[in-house]
User: What shape does this take?
Amino acid sequence: MIRAWLLPASLTLVGLLGGGSRAADGSPLIGLFVLVAFLLLAFVNSPLFFPRSLTHAEALRRSAADGRPVVYWRPGCAYCMRLRTRLGSRAHRAHWVNIWRDPEAAAAVRAANDGNETVPTVLVISPDGAETVMTNPSPAQVEQAFAT
Assistant: This one.
């Protein structure tokens, strides 16, 4: 849990120090801009940016019931942020699992990716029970999984 917040906390601290030093030098607007920019970066890199994470077992159970894809992710991953951003409000239609919070999910991602914890990894379970795994898929591929 702590490592998920390490980058956002660091970015917030840098924003406070950088913005504060600019404000102290007589440039309060630039200081405010620096602070806001770093706070935005901290938010985008935080677990708050993503839908609420489920456990691996809960995500599989829900996916089997409703047919929605399971997205395995981790905080600070640029590719996960890209996928989350590009999906927009549709991101809440998937079941998101943070592999740093769930060792079982991390093991599932390693099993699907030749021992590597490559994220985002998306699991789609079809109505007939067949599983399709996509590693670092494009947002369009994930949107197609919503349609099936």
User: Anything to note?
Assistant: Residues 2-24 form the longest helix (23 residues). The helical segments are 2-24, 28-44, 56-66, 78-87, 103-112, 139-147.
